[in-house]
Design brief:
428 residues, DctM, 80% helix, transport, 23 helices, cell membrane, cell inner membrane, globular, mainly alpha, TRAP transporter large permease protein
Length: 428
């Protein structure tokens, strides 16, 4: 009875637009106070804040965010878009394909879907519109390209999942490479199909080899930084946190050598990084308070016992969990979904003997789709705000890409080796 009362309380706080972190923290604390008393609950609250916020792996979050902010402020991300456009812009649908290529590069540096989408909307979309692209398609490509930052390392969502579930973040990063590239390939195929069947994606400017080589030279340092960060993790040379520090140093060296970062921009980058980090850590800490309440009340254990006694197959239960996450994605952002769902979903998945890294990629891929689906569709809203294209047109343009995303998700569900073969090679 108390559990359902707290669920209603949580729902009311969310409807009142209280940040999900505080809503979960307050609800969890009330539950603990009712379960074990106010003073023991306060003691547990204090310990939860300290244990979670002092975790060394959390240092990776502000460092990866700062790396992305430095590169974006230093104009490196815009140059990546220009370089990709120079190589593929001359073919039908080429500018859209170049946007996807640049989105992959941004995903490997930014780690934030909304930041990647905003960067693409302000730089790639005007270029596509200038060359006669249909607004619906151009905005959809920008939105779906931004979702790659959710799966491709160093994804902030993967870091949060790793912290919440105590799963190796290094293995999660490596596991996200192939699914991320598979998603990008699916987007490219869909663009090619749309370009072949419609006049939505005309050819761009004629190809000039010299120009393509010249603008690509600005991207080489960024590619080397990506290889260094991911390679250091894959080779076991550094932890994800140490690799993030390497990334920040490399980002500073790149923008200093190219003389594209002003002193004022450094302060702005630090400020944005701090705000984003505080929000993410608040979600992690408050989620742990709610998880502690579930543990004390035995709700998690009761669900695990029910799963053990059910006659449904483990894949049927997994399909139900994925569907629930997809529905949650229609109304909530990805970090809120993780903080709400993982205290129950992760123990259930482990009871069903699913691999924690594989399950993490499945969850991440599922919440990625939620960034595109109405009515919330956060990436669509970011694109609409930047491009002034009506949301209705963006969601209409996203329909074939959402179908493609679902196909990729099904492939990852049916063939776990797609996700796990790189982490297994890493651990040898």
């Amino acid at each position: 009875m108390v559990f359902f009362f707290l669920l209603i309380t949580l729902a009311i706080l969310m409807v009142l637009r209280m940040p999900i972190a505080f809503a979960m923290g307050i609800t969890g604390f009330i539950g603990l106070a009712m379960q074990i008393g106010p003073m023991p609950a306060l003691s547990l609250l204090e310990r939860s804040f300290f244990d979670k916020s002092s975790s060394f792996i959390l240092v990776a979050i502000p460092l990866f965010i700062l790396m992305a902010e430095i590169l974006t402020s230093g104009d490196v991300t815009r140059r990546a878009i220009i370089a990709c456009q120079a190589w593929t812009g001359h073919v039908k649908g080429g500018l859209a394909m170049a946007t996807v290529g640049a989105s992959v590069l941004l995903a490997a540096l930014v780690g934030s879907s909304t930041a990647s989408t905003a960067a693409m909307a302000s730089s790639a979309f005007p270029e596509m519109r200038r060359h006669g692209y249909n607004d619906s398609l151009a905005a959809a490509v920008v939105s779906v390209g931004g979702t790659l930052a959710v799966v491709v390392p160093p994804s902030i969502v993967l870091v949060v999942y790793g912290v919440l579930t105590e799963t190796s973040i290094g293995q999660l990063f490596i596991a996200g490479i192939v699914p991320g590239l598979l998603t990008a390939a699916g987007i490219l195929v869909m663009i090619k199909v749309i370009a072949a069947r419609t006049d939505y994606a005309p050819k761009g400017e004629p190809f000039q080899f010299g120009h393509a080589v010249r603008v690509s030279s600005n991207v080489i340092p960024m590619l080397l930084l990506i290889v260094a960060v991911i390679g250091a993790i894959y080779g076991g040379l550094t932890s994800p946190t140490e690799a993030a520090g390497l990334g920040v140093l490399g980002a500073f060296l790149i923008v200093l050598s190219q003389r594209t970062l002003r002193l004022k921009a450094i302060g702005s980058s630090l400020s944005r990084s701090i705000r984003a980090t505080v929000m993410i850590i608040a979600i992690i800490v408050c989620s742990s308070i709610f998880a502690n309440y579930l543990a004390f009340t035995g709700v998690t254990q009761a669900i695990l016992v029910a799963l053990a006694d059910t006659e449904l197959s483990r894949y049927t239960i997994l399909a139900i969990m994925v569907l629930i996450l997809l529905v949650m994605g229609m109304f909530m952002d990805q970090l809120a979904i993780l903080s709400l769902a993982m205290p129950l979903a992760f123990p259930a998945a482990m009871t069903l003997d699913f691999h924690p890294v594989w399950f993490g990629i499945i969850v991440t891929k599922t919440v990625e789709i939620g960034l595109l689906t109405p009515p919330l569709g956060l990436n669509a809203y970011v694109t609409a705000a930047q491009t002034k294209v009506p949301l209705r047109k963006i969601f209409h343009g996203l329909l074939p890409f959402i179908a493609m995303e679902v196909v990729v998700l099904i492939l990852l569900l049916v063939f776990p080796r797609i996700t796990l073969f790189l982490p297994e090679m890493m651990s040898r």
